[in-house]
Amino acid sequence: MALNFWQSTLGKKIVMGATGLIMIGYLCAHLLGNMKIFFGPGEFNAYGHWLRVMGAPVLHHEWGLWIARIVLLAAVVLHAVSAYQLSRRDIKARPQKYVHTKPRMSYATRTMRWGGVILGLFIVWHVLDLTTGTTHSGGFQEGHPYQNVVDTFSTWYGNVIYIVAMLAMGMHVRHGFWSAAQTLGAGNHTRDRALKAIANALAIVLTAGFISIPVGVMTGVVS
Amino acid sequence: MKLTLRVWRQKNPDAPGAMATYELDGVSQDMSFLEMLDVLNEELIVKGDEPVAFDHDCREGICGACSLVINGDAHGPERTTTCQLHMRSFQDGDTIDIEPWRASAFPVIKDLVVDRSAFDRVIQAGGYITAPTGAAPEAHATPVPKADADFAFEHAECIGCGACVAACPNGAAMLFTSAKVNHLNVLPQGSPERETRVLDMVAQMDAEGFGGCTLTGECATACPKGIPLFSITAMNKEWLRATRKVKR
Ligand code: HEM
Ligand code: FES
Known about the structure:
Chain B: It is an enzyme of class 1 (oxidoreductase). The structure holds 2 protein chains of 2 kinds. Helix content of chain A is 73%, strand content 0%. Chain A is an all-alpha fold. Chain A has a single domain (8-219), classed as Up-down Bundle (3 helical TM bundles of succinate and fumarate reductases), CATH 1.20.1300.10. In chain B, the strands form 2 sheets. Chain B has a 5-stranded mixed beta sheet. Classes of the chains: A mainly alpha, B alpha+beta. Residues 13, 16-17, 20-21, 23-24, 27, 76, 79-80, 83, 87, 112-113, 116-117, 119-120, 169, 172-173, 176-177, 179-180, 183 of chain A line the site of protoporphyrin IX containing FE.
């Protein structure tokens, strides 16, 4: 059954939609947490610490964090694998282009594939930059996320990579949220306006919210 | 009116094709698009050339035989079938590009004619009811709620022309398959096969090499019968439900 599900184009698409929604849910929580940066190093670093003890005393130190990491990793991998396999199939199903072509789809719809690749690369960079510190610009300090964030956004490339990725994320979420609703069978005529409005609101709030952090560092509000 | 036609010519499935250009004069605004092609073919025959092969049958917009991608639009600029498209939708002096449906599941047979038998096999996989049918039964014998009847009728309008596949950037047959699934799945007559129908038809659709859905909406825009994009949403829901109910 599970195999049949995965082998169907509909099954793969449902996996893509469900994992996409998990990631959107995570982005909302992540944004709320990140907003604490505007209330100073004390509050932001304490939040970083809480992520490690979340779920205590039921959960051992960092278990909650690792559970979240594993779920997210599984979601990204399943999402990317289904996207890759379905895209390969889609391209094969329409080998010959029309001589007379017109661009019709919205920008967000047309850029799902390349936007997804940008997001995938961004996720890798982001983890290496602010979680492991491998590619971090300043001296990466474990347990001092506030300073690490300020250091990242004190470099021009840190700002460029981050802002470009967040614009791509907004586009991806705009088409993605609405698509996921259709894929999971939740859309219809009467709900469509509400679904599109939620998709647009999510895209705008997530993009503007995340971009406010590098802008905060650049303007000296966060330093 | 005087037109420049650029038409896809291809001798057989294996031959390479190319666009050929023809000048056509004396076209009336009242002609249908297919009548315009008939005039072109008469001229070609007189000149000793091979006429352009294209599909057509009823010429009244109900059979689904006609096709053609006209200036990049499946069935041309109006929301109707090519046979019901009239030359008044074009201007004197226009250049019109005419191409066949493009999808690997719809190989070109000749010129503008493609093989749409993949659709027949999708129907054979579940687009029917198993109840024995004789003469038309008494209409009130099986009550159907108005909303369900409307929903079924909206989807039953699909004539299986394949414009949805032609318009889809992924060559997907989701709108066709969903129209057929929804039409029968909502009705009491179709309910014994409700789960197997959607599972089997979707499996056959995949086996034919159609692409997947990326919700671009091109199919519903091209559909001459106005099958809505939410038809696909409804099929997704039926498919999810069926995977939970049927253990295979
Ligand atoms: C923050 C990360 C991400 C989020 C929140 C996200 C969200 C979504 C959602 C909700 C969908 C809609 C699924 C559906 O159509 O039912 C989607 C589709 C898609 N995603 Fe992502 N995604 C993310 C990252 C990625 C990555 C890393 C890739 C590439 C490897 C990717 C590639 C795609 C593609 C190709 C589609 C299908 C586009 C289409 O249907 O036209 N996404 N995404
Ligand atoms: S010829 Fe029958 S629908 Fe056009």
